[in-house]
Amino acid sequence: MLILSGAPAASDFRLAKLLSSIRERCGSIELLDSRYVHFVDLERELDAGQASILESLLRYGPAAPCATPRGQVLLVVPRFGTVSPWSSKATDIAHVCGLAAVRRIERGVAYYIDGPGRLSEEQWREASSLLHDRMTEAVLREAGEAAGLFQHAAPKPLATVPLAAQGRAALESANSTLGLALSDDEIDYLVEAFRALGRDPADVGTLLDVDYNIATRTGLQCAPLIHDFMGTSPRGTVRMSIGPANKESDVDAAIRAVTEIAAAAPRE
To answer: What's the whole-model pTM score?
Structure first.
């Protein structure tokens, strides 16, 4: 894995706002700075010309000072097991530029927090909560840990949230463990909706999104009468739409994803 630093990731205005919020929770923090960090998964080592092309592609945004910011690092990256939209496009561009040895490029943001001393564990957790979105991101302490971005785990089996058996607590637990970021009123709505349907929520759409980076629409999709006609009500369906930017490889990837999820699903 190559690790290449980049430009400042946040504006001075954004950093000042974040710094104010961190000071409220963590006390006397003197400085907050940021840099993009790029992680490159390679099939083989690049030659000098290819390395130069890659460095040129990742040299964007405002010029960064030569010196690395001082302070303790909190590295925000996409959640392990996901592929960010930025990664998909950046990897495609690298391939178009002849960098076939690049399997994937991902990007994180290194935040540098400087104060009179190192952050305590509690302060580290508080600062982390302000600097990342736990639904889509994770916080690391060392750049080497980002190798986990490129690990390929076996797909998880299809699961349901046992709402009928466990009630609202089941959805609250799923909200916490899956990082769904549902508000209390959204949980109330979903509990009532699935009780009315007489079934438990399933996670086919979540698996496609989180494990395969494929966006879909699930359920009745604002068209309950069509589902009545097709005989798919009240369960609904998972719908995929092909757009002008999709390639044949995207269709193949979607077919593989659905096949793997179906193979892992428990039989009724």
So the answer is: 0.66
